[in-house]
Task: structure prediction
Amino acid sequence: MDEESTTLRSPLSQPQIEEIWIAAVAAVGLKIERGSSAYASTDGRGKIEIGADEILDSDDAVAQLIFHELCHGLVEGPERRAAPDWGLSNADGRDIEKEHACLRVQVHLAGRHGLRELMAPTTEYRAYHDAISGDPLENASDGAAALAREAIDRSSSRPWIDVLDRALAETRARLDACASEEGTPHVATAVHPVGFAFGENQETCGTCAWSYRGGRGPPVERCRQSAGSDGNARRTEARFRACVRWEPPVACQSCGACCREAYHSVTVSVRDPVVWKQPDLVVRNGHRFEIRRAGDRCAALEETRADGSSERDGLRGLTLKSAATSTVSAGRVFSCAIYDDRPRACRDFEAGGAHCLVARRRVGLSP
Result:
């Protein structure tokens, strides 16, 4: 066998996938030509030249090369569109940060569709690409992440709107169809941008309890489930298909985690109205006032079970003031006997917030 016959070509090297990416180039007002002068280059006049098949290495693919060039275009912005090769030079190291930003954009976009590895560069920059971990738009010791964020923001305006996402989704669909037809495993494992596997349901990040808007700078959509020890959560978008950690909005009455074993005390200010409205539930612990505990849970917590029985570890004479009337699948309904008089610490506790997730994890309700 000759060397070519023993070398596996990229799964992206098929006419249908090449057509997807040629159409993506046209959608942003550019055109593709095949030539022999370079692997990939732009002339600044609307043409992207991709090397002819005979000059490409076996692990290169037209789709991968086009994707890389379009990501460069996103990073450089419209003002560099009329410059050959996007105004970049590989003769020295002055544009390395921009090259790194391009790779971070690639990881962010292709990772949504499980195509990070297939769309990776085959040049000397592959090592940098493969070393990117966590959120590619956040974690960088240089300015590459900031440039990548600007590029992603640019992708939501014309002529880029949905062009790359659509091409990646169509590429993914084509690869999956080929795998199904041939009875072979998928060529890549689909991984959600936040790092978890995709879920089996048809929900989206926008319907998940742990999706929120925040972060440094202008607030963007993020996922609480992906937050590390520093509290920084990875970026996501409401329209993304949900990952395996998707959960519906938190229903406090079927949860009660924050009032159960998750936390050991609720500290209250001496000026909090609960001190004089519910004196039998307030105890002094050194210099602090706290809501009394009954075992490992708040003494004001009541639990109603599916068989109709109820348990209140606190004062049995208190009137139940919360509207806990629904039946939940687990057969347990939690309610607060002093809901209208609850202390400020409880009022400030946000359902679906960071502390809520911690509480649910501590009692085994969330992964």
